[in-house]
Amino acid sequence: MKERILTGDRITGKLHLGHYVGSLKNRVELQHQYDTFLLLADVQALTTHFDQPELIQRNLRQVAMDYLAAGIEPEKATILVQSLIPEIAELTAYFSMFVTVNALRHNPTIKAEATERGFQDMYYGFLGYPVSQTADITFCKASLVPVGEDQLPHIEQSRKIVRRFNQLYKPVLIEPRALVGEIPRLVGLDGNSKMSKSLGNAIYLDSTPEEISQQIQKATTDPARIRKSDPGHPDICPIYAYHQAFRPQGAQEIHEDCTKGQIGCSECKRKIFATINELLEPMRERRVTYQNHPKRVDEILISGTETARLAAKETMLEVREAMGMNYFAVDA
Fold it and tell me: Which positions, given as ranges, span the membrane (predicted)?
């Protein structure tokens, strides 16, 4: 029996290259080795977008198509909708009974995002995000979680929650392990340490060649470099970071030519544009197929959610028994 993976995304917007190198590329490769569950986290999207339900509804199919366009195969991976698995909400409630507020407040990812969003007083759902994420992982007994670097504190907190549950009741849940991509964090076009849709510094997976070109042309480079012959500092340039991520075989040459003043920023940008456009071209082609057949996308989501629901029911039978809450059967 294959080991199971659970991973996914809050559907607050389209996926970008940061998602791809941080986790999605990994998922595409791992689906051939593991029983892969991909979660469209619409409930968790409400933690920051509870007043924009129309955005979440629109993004559900958009992110699903991002998965499929990137190479996720519905015959090999299960794509599911979080809100349609009520067992996740039930598990979240159980876990929340023994997770302290202080433990959640000290989560570095929660603190960083609260600061970034200017939250003076955190909402209950936002603060409890790691508890909900633990339920996502454990409802299907996933043992591996491919994530970006920023999610590592959440996974560590999930491990603690599972450990505590197993100690309190019975060891029926699996303590998950994190699996980080080769490029754990991709720098933004503006030089920010993280590419992010909320910061507007991203190249999206559905970008046209024209959009990619415009974004790269506007990208920040070495501010101290005025002329092509000036020695550059590639280690502070986001364009060089993209060479490292997407064309590693040529990155060393770029580094040497830049530091010697033998290649200009425009040529460096042209090279990375060609590489990124080549990467995204087959994704655009696959996306068109699904855009032309939207019912096929819905069928994939329905089938995947039904499969996941079966796994959830099996897990909850064990959870309720472990907690002594299997009183009697009730017709649903």
Answer: none
**Is 204 within a domain?**
no
Q: For residue 210, count other CB atoms closer than 10 A to its CB.
A: 8
Residue with tokens 């977008």: 49
Task: Show the tokens assigned to 131.
Answer: 């508890």
Range of lowest pLDDT (5-14, 90-99, 175-184): 175-184
SS3 15: coil
Q: Contact at 8 Å (CB) between 28 and 7?
A: no
pLDDT tens digits along 38-61: 999 999 999 999 999 999 999 999
Residue 302 lies in a domain: yes
66 lies in the same domain as 17? yes
For residues 145 and 45, membership in a common domain is answered with: yes
For residue 270, give every residue at least 6 positions away whose Cβ sits within 8 Å of its Cβ, in sequence order, or none: none
- For residues 84 and 155, give the distance between their C-alpha atoms in angstroms, rounded to a whole number: 23
Is 139 within 8 Å of 91 (Cβ atoms)? yes
Model confidence over 228-241: pLDDT tens digits? 888 888 888 999 99
318 shares a domain with 252? no
- H or E element, residue 180: strand 177-180
- The chain-wide mean pLDDT, for the chain, equals 93
Residue 332's pLDDT is 59
List own/partner pairs for 209-216 with CB under 8 A and 24 or more apart. 209/277, 212/273, 212/276, 212/277, 212/280, 213/273, 213/277, 215/189, 216/189, 216/269, 216/272, 216/273, 216/276
pLDDT of residue 199: 84
Would 331 be classed as within a structural domain?
A: no
**3-state percent breakdown (helix, strand, coil) of the chain, nearest 5:** 60, 10, 35
Six token digits for residue 200? 């507007």
Q: Which domain holds residue 97?
A: 4-186+294-323
